[in-house]
Design brief:
Helix content: 25-40%
Bound molecules: calcium ion
Largest sheet: 10 strands, mixed
Shape: globular
CATH architecture of the largest domain: 3-Layer(aba) Sandwich
Number of domains: 3
Strand content: 15-25%
Number of helices: 14
Distance between the termini: 35 Å
Strand order of the largest sheet: 7-6-5-4-8-1-9-12-2-13
Structural class: alpha/beta
CATH class of the largest domain: Alpha Beta
CATH superfamily of the largest domain: Alkaline Phosphatase, subunit A
Length: 483
């Protein structure tokens, strides 16, 4: 079904659907000047609004709609069921700063300047974000919640800004509200939702389309490596029997040897992941924190509807990276295994078909998607692809593989690259001091070994597919070097 709202650049302007007070007044006989102003306003309003929700450290399966009956996310589930759910969504580097930078620019970290995590992680000055492009096209731009780049949100194109940098307490957090430092009393996601709703209220008096980039702090751990959900929410998980991952006692045979002493394993041991009950307790706290976050997001979704924006607004939802919850005896992220690089992702809005798409989609795809939905030209340096053809369920040529890159040591990883297709994954880990020198190779058949336990690299039987994947990796890298 072709959309009412998806861009049709050659068609006549469609009838304005959000009339509100303007439409009412015009209908009752304002003068020609006012009518002309109204026409100009409608012209501007033909571009759609965007509510881009980016959650933190939320795994691909930590949403109810994925089939996980243990975590409760009714608000996200309802929204997802209306739209296109992506069951094979990935990030091109699984850490907070690089994933945000990739979403903002539609470009890989090795090119936009943010391929690592830390206070100095900064986009190159020449980089332009979706907020820059949309603002130039007449959009009001808002950023609410967690920010994690050394560039300010304002320098990245956002005008309405209430934010805090990186991680910290989940209650009574210090925030920067329009330039004023203050304490956000209570649970941080309730505060973020209030700020998002304040922005939506402000837009009622303006004729501009808007983009709201709402970045939750949760489900990231707090500064004490814990989750602090609401007491009553956590209590609901107290007696839930939560299974631990089958691979939690992995001896890491076939994996790069450094991982046995790497941060992902050492930190997991600090959390007590050598005992199943400690993994279970973390899952309870993590799921409860996600449920609390979902409830706060539900208030924002309700506010969009109550404000009359629903017919003109696209929701874009994604987790910024995955999270190991004991798989392979790991915690955290960065590493190129599925639990780390897969994220929950969907889009909902006018004309987007309800259903599930299994194509390989990436965090760098959102920026070009917004360009197309807004009727703007796709900047030629964006590495991502617009998802619009997938929203419409059209048969289309789509990527057959993608590159995952962690080119510098991050949170205990050695430099590594991976290429993933629908079925296969090749990982090349490099010497820390010589990033072009391969230290270890892994090849996984995700169809027959989705838990990535059998390294097939260099086993004498998979040389053909290994060579094909290595060629694909080289092609991806060459394309990046020239962009
Ligand atoms: Ca994150």
């Amino acid at each position: 079904m072709m959309s009412e709202r998806l861009p049709r650049r050659d068609s006549a302007p469609r009838t304005e659907t959000v009339m509100g007070r303007r439409g009412f007044l015009q209908a009752f006989g304002l003068g020609l000047v006012e009518l002309a102003a109204g026409a100009r306003a409608r012209e501007r309003r033909r571009r759609p609004n965007f509510v881009f929700i980016l959650t933190d450290d939320q795994r691909h399966d930590a949403v109810g709609y994925s089939g996980n009956a243990l975590v409760k996310t009714p608000h996200l589930d309802r929204l997802a069921q209306r739209g296109t759910k992506f069951s094979n969504a990935f990030v091109v580097l699984s850490i907070c700063c690089p994933s945000r930078a990739a979403c903002l620019t539609g470009r890989y970290g090795s090119r936009n300047g943010v391929a690592y995590v830390g206070g100095s992680a900064r986009l190159h000055d020449r980089e332009r974000t979706f907020a820059h492009y949309l603002k130039d096209a007449g959009y009001a731009t808002a950023m609410v919640g967690k920010w994690h780049l050394a560039n300010s949100p304002q320098a990245c194109g956002f005008d309405f800004v209430t934010h805090f940098v990186s991680n910290g307490p989940q209650w009574n957090r210090q925030v920067n509200e329009h330039g004023q430092k203050k304490t956000a009393h209570g649970f941080i996601e309730d505060y973020n939702a209030d700020q998002a709703i304040a922005f939506l209220d402000r837009m009622k008096d303006q004729d501009k389309p808007f983009v709201l980039f709402l970045c939750t702090q949760l489900a990231h751990m707090d500064h004490n490596f814990d989750w602090k959900p609401k007491t009553e929410t956590l209590a609901r998980y107290a007696d839930v029997d939560i299974p631990v991952p089958r691979t939690w006692r992995d001896d890491l045979a076939g994996k790069p040897p450094y991982l046995k002493q790497g941060r992902n394993r050492m930190q997991a041991l600090k959390y007590g992941y050598d005992k199943a009950e400690n993994i279970r307790e973390h899952l309870r706290r993590y799921y409860a924190a996600i449920e609390d976050t979902d409830a706060a997001l539900g208030r924002v979704i309700d506010a969009v509807k109550a404000s009359g924006y629903e017919d003109d607004t696209y929701y874009l939802f994604m987790g910024d990276n995955g999270w190991f919850m004991g798989e392979h005896g790991f915690t955290s992220k960065v590493l190129p295994y599925e639990e780390s690089i897969r994220v929950p992702m969907f889009a909902a809005g006018p004309g987007i078909e309800a259903g599930t798409n299994e194509d390989l989609v990436l965090n760098i795809d959102w920026a070009p998607t917004m360009m197309e939905l807004a009727g703007l030209a796709r900047p030629s340096n964006m590495h991502g692809k617009s998802l619009v053809s997938l929203f419409q369920g059209r048969k289309t040529t789509w990527r057959e593989s993608f590159l995952y890159e962690a080119p510098v040591p991050c949170l205990g990883s050695q430099p590594l690259l991976a290429v993933r297709t629908g079925r296969w994954k090749l990982v090349q880990t490099f010497e820390t001091q010589a990033c072009e020198k391969i230290a270890f190779e892994e090849l996984y058949d995700l169809q027959n070994d989705p838990e990535e336990m059998q390294n097939l690299a260099n086993d004498g039987q998979h040389a053909g597919i290994q060579a094909t994947l290595a060629q694909a990796m080289a092609r991806h890298r060459n394309r990046l070097r020239s962009s």
